[in-house]
From TrEMBL:
Top-level taxonomic group: Archaea
Lineage of origin: Archaea, Methanobacteriati, Methanobacteriota, Stenosarchaea group, Halobacteria
Pfam assignment, any one: MMPL
Protein name: RND family transporter
Taxonomic source organism: Halorubellus litoreus
Region (Disordered): 139-166
Tagged with keyword Transmembrane: yes
Amino acid sequence: MSTIDRLASVATDHPAIVVAVMLVLTGVFGAGLADVEESSSISGLSGDSPAREAYDEVEQRFSDQGSNTTVTMVAVRNDTGNALSRGSLLSTLRYQRSLHQNRTLNRTLAGDQATASVANVVARAAVAAERERTLPDPVLTDWTDSERTDIDASENASARPEPPTLDEQITQLESMNASQVSTVVERVLDPDRSSPGKRAALRLLPQSYEPGSTTADTHLVVVVQETGGDVAVEVALPERVTDGQVAARELAKDRSDGQQYYLYSGGLMSGQQSTAISDSLAILGPLALLFVLVVLSIAYRDPVDIVLGLLGIGVVLAWTMGLMGWLGIAFGQTMIAVPILLIGLSVDYALHVVMRYREERADEAASPATAMRRSLVGVGPALALVTATTAIGFLANLTSQMGDIRMFGVVSAIGILATLCVFGLLVPALKVGVDSLLARVGLDRRPSSLGSNETVSGLLRGGASAATRAPVAVLVLVALVTAGGAVGATQVDIATPETSFMADDPPAWTEDLPEAVQPSEYFLKENRRFIYGNFQTPDKQGYVYVEGNVTSAAVLDDVTRATDVAESSDAVLTGPDGDPVVVTPVTAMRTAASQNDSFNATFHAADTDGNGVPDRNVASVYDAFYETTPRLAARTLHRSDDGTYDGLLVRIAVNGNLDRDAAVAPLYGAAETMEDADGVSVIATGSPVTSKNLNDGLATTVIESLTLTLGVVLVLLTVIFHVREGAASLGLVTLLPIFCSVTWLLGTMWLLSIPIGLTTALVGSISVGLGVDYAIHVSERFAEEFEGETDSETALQRTSTGTGSALFSSAMTTAAGFGVLSFALLPALRQFGIVLAIGIVYSFVASVYVQPSLLELWSRYRSETTLPAKATPSASDD
């Protein structure tokens, strides 16, 4: 007796014991539900990525505030149309003051000058006019000041007066009329004169600003908070920091000063993503249940089977989610698809067991226990094989560089094992118990299968009929369609926009939902669009990081050549003066020399050939640079605790609106110019580079996971069919239709302009894992029917109406389940659901309408070579 026979006997002969044990396990696993934590973070590349590690090191070594800070961007737009008017500047300063006065936010701010805006620069200039001297620039963040060259010419920093407080700045502007303030604005932003803070102010103005103008549509306020430690991703900020950013938005919402405030930050993103997860589940859960209920009602037409099916789904979800809690796996955005996925798989398993049970119950002599035992023995091997191949499809995602994708694969594999246990033991035991009890009271129920419906059975027999009449013609047509899909598959875009994990405004129909499940307000996507569309943002800056002996004159010569390469690229942004925004130690030192006589003498004394690059006593020049302008020096040079120099940075502002390959070209070009320098290592990094690497990683994920899944599944199918049927070739016949369906799916993604992103990168391996289920059931049933003296046509017809009916119900339910994700508030999940729903339909079509032709040709070959006594096919291939 095989293992499956023994398990089937246990489930049918001792149903009460099986139910008791499974319920105890449900209680144990379900206890972990209380420990499931929600996570809004989206993991990108693994921490061992060289570009990612270099980026982290740059943030630690070359940031004004260090890596333990985070930035909130606040775009301010005045209703009058001029964000540089006296009223707008005063309103901005008062808003900044309210930020400092808020206890929740204040405890996280990075110092008294942790907020910065054009209003600060103007107010300081006005105060300076009163004091008749220039004051230092406001403290700005690392990214807003990446190009900064405004340096206080005073050599004695201790003699500088204290910067005016926000109250003093507000008082100063309040004492001036609109004309006077406009005059100060004009002087500060005059393109023909150098004034403290001018470049910083220009960086806080929109890209549409015309140099010299005293008007602007909008301007930016920067808020810097301390995180208290390194933060791997912005959306994983400490709660106190996030609370401060929420408080900043609430303060902006409560203002009635004629200004609009658009806030964007990691903490706000985290909050909205968490809310979007909850809101999506609140909407998707009932919809998924409704779809499943409708489909099961159509397929089963029996309330007992519907209830048992829903109960089994609940147990599967409890096991899976509970084990997530026990294993400490957080429920992130990609995990939203797991419950929908498991619902579809659960229905798939249930349908195969129940439909086969109904076929067996058609035998008047078969008791519920006997019919269920035959059912489990018949479909059990297929279910076990399906579980193995599906789990392989999920676990193939362990090859991904993205942590979220790896965890999705692990949790899904856990879920499929739970599904096998629940629908292979618990549900059959319950059904035997319920039907036996009902039979004892005179209700001997024998519902018919869906395949008995003439309309459905006629549709299902179409593939079998075509296969027995013209299998070659069918396969030629399929080959042509598959070739077209393959061409489209090579054109699919690879992209994961950050906005794909940002909720859209809820559709109008959600307003009719009960108040308890109505979605929240989602403002962040529009805010980000406004800020990124008007200002130079963090992801538009890249770096060339040089580590090692950076005091070599040869290294500085290479830096200069790298600068020339970068500046020649159209992908590099230009500053307010029309020059490319490339900042290096050499350019920074030249600026310092032009504004400080002492350093000017030191700099030129070290430049013996007059090319503007020090070629001797470089370490001494660096020392003087640090002494003269420590902040600017620290932004381009790293000095270790022992006073030695071991790193330098080239900052290149690139056009983030270009495609990723074009955006990183100047960074890679500059790095390649320096890569042969002696004694140093050179690497291109920054947001543009890590973003490109993420997409390259996605491409690798698709190729590696799909190749691995196809390879392992083929080997497994070949071995299993060789052992069970003595026909290893049946493994290839089973996999070929699914290869076709995946190709069609990728081609359809191209037609629909759906890119391969963080979630859709899963579709290849998952489609194989799910689709091969259908193909396995078809091959198993056909082999079973073909074992006797049945001819291939009869075997195909029985397979199409018997197994095909279960596949039809399963496919429609699973596709509908995934289709529910199209109602998700997150674009990435909508695309994921749509793509997988299409993939399920394609897998069904391939299994029911393509695979029969392959099986027909396989059966002819097998009959002619290994089973000469077998009945030959009744139809020829005309």
